[in-house]
Amino acid sequence: MPLKTPGEYKQSLRDQRTIYFRGERVGDVTTHPVLGIAVEHAAIDYAMAEDPRHRGLAVVDEGGREFSRYYHLPRTSEHLLARSELIAASTREGGTLVVLIKEIGTDALFALHLVSEAMAARGVPAYRDRVRAYHERCRDSDLAVAVAQTDVKGDRSLGPSAQPDPDHYVRIVDRRADGIVVRGAKVHTSVVTNTHELIVLPTRAMRAEDAAYAVAFAVPVATPGLTLVASPFGAFPKDPFEYPISARHKMMETLTVFNDVFVPWERVFLAGETEFAGPLALTFVKYHRFTAVSYKLPLLELLVGAGRAVAEMNGIEAAGHVREKLTRLASYHTTVAALIRQAALQCTVEPPGLAVPNTLLTNIAKYQFASQYHQAVQMVQDLAGGLLVTAPAVEDLRSELTGPLVAKYLGAKAGVPTEDRLRLLNLISDLTASDFGGYQEVLAVHAEGSLEAEKLQTYREYDFSEPVAYARRLAGIG
Amino acid sequence: MPLKTPGEYKQSLRDQRTIYFRGERVGDVTTHPVLGIAVEHAAIDYAMAEDPRHRGLAVVDEGGREFSRYYHLPRTSEHLLARSELIAASTREGGTLVVLIKEIGTDALFALHLVSEAMAARGVPAYRDRVRAYHERCRDSDLAVAVAQTDVKGDRSLGPSAQPDPDHYVRIVDRRADGIVVRGAKVHTSVVTNTHELIVLPTRAMRAEDAAYAVAFAVPVATPGLTLVASPFGAFPKDPFEYPISARHKMMETLTVFNDVFVPWERVFLAGETEFAGPLALTFVKYHRFTAVSYKLPLLELLVGAGRAVAEMNGIEAAGHVREKLTRLASYHTTVAALIRQAALQCTVEPPGLAVPNTLLTNIAKYQFASQYHQAVQMVQDLAGGLLVTAPAVEDLRSELTGPLVAKYLGAKAGVPTEDRLRLLNLISDLTASDFGGYQEVLAVHAEGSLEAEKLQTYREYDFSEPVAYARRLAGIG
Amino acid sequence: MPLKTPGEYKQSLRDQRTIYFRGERVGDVTTHPVLGIAVEHAAIDYAMAEDPRHRGLAVVDEGGREFSRYYHLPRTSEHLLARSELIAASTREGGTLVVLIKEIGTDALFALHLVSEAMAARGVPAYRDRVRAYHERCRDSDLAVAVAQTDVKGDRSLGPSAQPDPDHYVRIVDRRADGIVVRGAKVHTSVVTNTHELIVLPTRAMRAEDAAYAVAFAVPVATPGLTLVASPFGAFPKDPFEYPISARHKMMETLTVFNDVFVPWERVFLAGETEFAGPLALTFVKYHRFTAVSYKLPLLELLVGAGRAVAEMNGIEAAGHVREKLTRLASYHTTVAALIRQAALQCTVEPPGLAVPNTLLTNIAKYQFASQYHQAVQMVQDLAGGLLVTAPAVEDLRSELTGPLVAKYLGAKAGVPTEDRLRLLNLISDLTASDFGGYQEVLAVHAEGSLEAEKLQTYREYDFSEPVAYARRLAGIG
Amino acid sequence: MPLKTPGEYKQSLRDQRTIYFRGERVGDVTTHPVLGIAVEHAAIDYAMAEDPRHRGLAVVDEGGREFSRYYHLPRTSEHLLARSELIAASTREGGTLVVLIKEIGTDALFALHLVSEAMAARGVPAYRDRVRAYHERCRDSDLAVAVAQTDVKGDRSLGPSAQPDPDHYVRIVDRRADGIVVRGAKVHTSVVTNTHELIVLPTRAMRAEDAAYAVAFAVPVATPGLTLVASPFGAFPKDPFEYPISARHKMMETLTVFNDVFVPWERVFLAGETEFAGPLALTFVKYHRFTAVSYKLPLLELLVGAGRAVAEMNGIEAAGHVREKLTRLASYHTTVAALIRQAALQCTVEPPGLAVPNTLLTNIAKYQFASQYHQAVQMVQDLAGGLLVTAPAVEDLRSELTGPLVAKYLGAKAGVPTEDRLRLLNLISDLTASDFGGYQEVLAVHAEGSLEAEKLQTYREYDFSEPVAYARRLAGIG
To answer: Is the CB of D245 less than 8 angstroms away from the CB of A341?
Structure first.
């Protein structure tokens, strides 16, 4: 089956999916005033495959068969680097907002390949074939795939089976001859309003008593019983002049509810094997944080570029403190980029032959990104000035009455049109001082694992034994 | 004349003032969907004077005559502390947004008292009496007063009289027997859409050739030729459930244009005396940064309180990293509060007997606040979790269809109603991840002077001579 | 009894005290090449009482009776401020090294007053009179008093009575009619090699099973069974040209061993009342951290002064990054000073009428000091340059052969003698890059409680209830 | 000629070199109590070439001819990586102190190759052949080579030829038929007391009027007129138990004076071509900072290892704040290591075919290392505890009188011998709190360029054009 065009992608989303937005059932996601923006944004993925500038990166030709590079199983550092570049390139097209409709799904698929292989090695071979078949179907139909991992969790001090409400983690409520029935809900599910498929993964390690919660599977989004409650965050009408990024680019987030959803066995990838729940959760995260850092690079590039551009427009680029800030921004961008590159180069290859990005370096890259993001925002706001939040409206610029005043008084350096200055300020305002800016800040801290999760993983992955031995040797201790 | 009631305040704003919002002339500011919110917010000042809980702080009784404490000339540390407390208390009522309709005006008046006194001592006595008379009028009529200081500046590498466009700093274009005519524009003028008066101050030191730009004066807001172009930043319809602060509290910012505005001499406070332009700009800032730190305290309190409350709701308050973050937030709040208190206690008293907050300590307090604000936001977002930007809408909670799902799945710890949790998350989202959060971030960096301005002032005010002498003594150098 | 002279102080130290230094018993501490330096340093305290420049601060006249201000019970903020100033002034005389021979002892005495008063209120009156009598004796004899608090602790995961070696916390091994017998050891005991008395306090809260460890008492340093093993850290012959501070100023630290030491009842201040062990440990710390921040101020002043002086000598004081660093150093110094001042001003007065510095502010002041110290050192080293560790010796400067080369080539700016430059560099080298610099770094982190201890105390003392209530109110939660 | 053995190396240093230490002429550097330690340390380089564990890394076999890898011209990323590994390995053998006797010299040689090639391309071919010949001689005789770059500089606000004392930068005072005569002095010259050769490079870009100062050359250390004044910093007798690193490892720093030193033409590499002075200074730095980061890695490894080991011994490794600190240390080490690796991988190859490490990444790596070093020291000191500066002497441990007390009371966790604990504490004390610790701190900030130099270079090397174009595109600006 050929690659989908953007048009085919949009057409294929017109199905029976159950989505609520501000209390109302959404009919056609492609024409909805809010969800439709997310659909257009997601279509970037399909458009890139048709665009000669990106096709070489976006599409893989394997033995004459073409498919989206996302579905290509990485077997070497080079494969990981190419994947990373594609993620960055599509996010760059997306105005610093990740497209994600194949990135996250394939992160999950790679994890399923590795874990099902390990299960096969431990005498549970069934899942491996299902994973392969499902992977091929998604690849060959060029599908968009979301992932739901984070359970609602209820009381965080209690495990899945100890919750007062047993549905606070997604669980198997019935096992039938033809499949399983699941109940529960996930939060922070990105892009599922406009994907074809949804993969569900466990969010943590499970104990023996949590067997019903050790579950992974995939369903079409239009499956009966699957209800998506979309978040309205930042969803108000936006003029592209004032919100040059977020008026055009959007990612939907949902509360994803499973009301006794039936899943046939061929779509079930874990069903009670508690010892594999933790590894599956963790392996997904290994790929997904690599994806995350890859898609953060255009954001960092834009912080540098917008900071430098606005400093030039404001005529302050020669000031010592301005150069200091630009240097720190440049260093921030370069360091994160170098770390994720090293993570690809220092990958490990694990059965059945998949390259896994270096976990230590990936987590450090993610942490370096996340822990310094707010400080970077501060620097860019500092360079831009207070007009970020006090500038007039586009209507004031266009109006016959106020337009001349705005043009006269908000022109800065000679040669810079006032409109250009306002456009750049609006870009920075959208990027750092609007709900979209807040979204980026919160995602920096929480998406793909919190700062604490990254620190924990760093602590676990770093090999302290050599350094300790070195210290002991120098100290003269046996 | 008695104190104004909130109703009288609102009524008094219905005049001929010229305001544009999104390209259209605003009729009645009190009923305008956006500007009206700012009016209601500002009315807090008048309401507090009537409120028994606040009256003792808000109103001063001097020889049987009652007036707003803002107009009280500070002569001691205690006066400064009381003023600081009042600013903090009204900002607290304002949901962390400063009310400002008397704070900033009296900051300017105090500076005018000091500088006109210095001018009198240097043989220019006329301004002193005008300042006193104007101060009494504002006080006795209980007026709201805005201040416009920041010129649009044009090319920042050039001084006022060297600009290609001579109007890029506000200047005197005509001197008449009865007054002066001024032209130019100011930016970042806060609250002027809903004050009675506007005081205009120079933004920097001036040289001899800049005499036309060394100008300070006051005009009623409804003066002919004064045009306000209001910023639409963050001005879209907001549900108070989703935006618990910013749906109710707002401060307007304007581009403030002087199209050949006539100002009678009794309202002119500087007109060509270039050597006093710098001192006036700086003295205003001394008071205004003290005001600024005072009004930031409720914001810091809320960051601590919201961080702690959400940690408790999420059931994570015992975790080590959570306590670390809460400790850092508490320390941040306490340090800034102690520094501004010390600034009042270590004040100087200058002719004609006004207490000036310690400039070194005020600038350090402001810098400590501003430089750590984004990091504090990061910590609160970290404690709150991703639901800040992925939670469902209020309509989803209220809907019969989705309400039960939301209630069931977004309940966290036992005993915490889901609605309470969403309310708290929305508070933090509004405070840190919305346009209002962006506004607070940008204000932290730019309002009342940038981080660099505060550092520069700190460097100038710190007395290095004693430390250097100590170092030389210990080094054994003569 | 009159105040002691420096000579009388030194003479009075020639007794039977048992001190080991590098494995050998020390005879006369006043003439020992290493311990003698510490004696001279400590004598600063007695010299200041005779020095007209300091007498007003150092000596209190109460009803015609003069005594050292250290022994003055603080009853008001002003008393605390005067005490803080005295501590800073004597440390300044001591070249940034605290004198400590009365500071720490009176910190302990104040804590004993407060806790013995609380014990009396709870029906255990005996200790109160002993504390008062002992306090008067120390005061009236103008004694130097050390304090031993930190037990050696053994396995830190176990409490006192659970240690494999029961002596790993100091304990009562016998109760006799005339007193108690104690055994165990304390570490990090400062200045005890040159004080008359040693007060012993518990290091932590105790449980019921730890009754033998709930012990506080005082002994003369020359008591039988008390063995001091002095640390040789940084104790090598130093030329005052190369080590302008540490060649002249020194504080001894000891491992302090109690080999079945007998203590008569009148010197016993706690003996088994476990519920008071924690409060005593904590109350001591409240005073002692206030002392600590007070004595750190000259150190911060010197960092600023040395940084500025060397920048001037190097001719770089106008560079942007240099001003940035000096501003940060100045801000650091000012902030810590303001916080400790505010801690005195916001003191509480507790039975029997003693002023206790505000614990929250004291801990935050200490934390602000300690957490930024290494960064401040980095900045001063940055300003000084590599000659800190590569400059020639004083002999090279004095030598006929190399002296002219050194003078010619290491002269920097015109007008600055090479010798002055080397002296200033040596001062900074001693202060930041020698064992003395290391001592200051380690003390910053560990003395009077670690960074973690200060954070813990901040967390406990900050009142979160008001901020949480404010957050809930703004969120619209009941 | 074969590789030198350690014995041959030492023997070869017994020549007529003119060195002063504390005002006295040094006879035999190999037996001098201070300089001899540096000789032993440097001999590590020769020992590694004989050691089967290191030979593969230390020695290159090119067409059957063996020579030290340092002299191998890097032509690929792999060559740079191998060089980096060798530098790290020898520094590791050197107890975190770089050996440097071939590292720095070859950094200079590589720079001379590149610049003399550029000079040849611009019509000045003579230098290229001299550089090649000199390189071959050093390589084939397996020589140790120091580099003197930093001039004494005099008044830093003035250029070389504008100094009141014309000798404040090294300059050519005579040009003769057979060579040049140079005068002046350099500071911070490392390891030259125990190398065979000294290469002299200009320290900065020169203008036309500075032609006499645009000079580069090489001389044997025993050249007449070359006087070395060695720094006594940290040079006192040290017991290896108390100073486990610095009692055994040392690097001498000198003031290096050229008293009309004659240099024959074949050893002159720049003599008046001012336009190449800056490129030569900068190209040397490109290699030398790459060397610097390579040799810092064992230091970072030791900070991690010592921190972890002491946390374990203290029994606190499970505490949250301890894990936080260890994680930050591990992340610091890993980030710097990844950046320098990436600098090798993203190298450029420049005529005549030499691989130059990526300058942007190298500078960022160096800055990341240097800017966080003091904070890392703070963390390790925090983990180790106050005994770093209060522990007894080795004699106290060995003494019959105090030994049992020390053994009993300073034992911590069961199973950890007290001696081991003291050894580890002494290691950390030596590393962070002694003059050696101070040396490391100052080197972190100043060696191979200051923090400011690295920031400046980062600013210059980062390509802002792409990010600015991206910002403009998203802003909708033409």
So the answer is: no
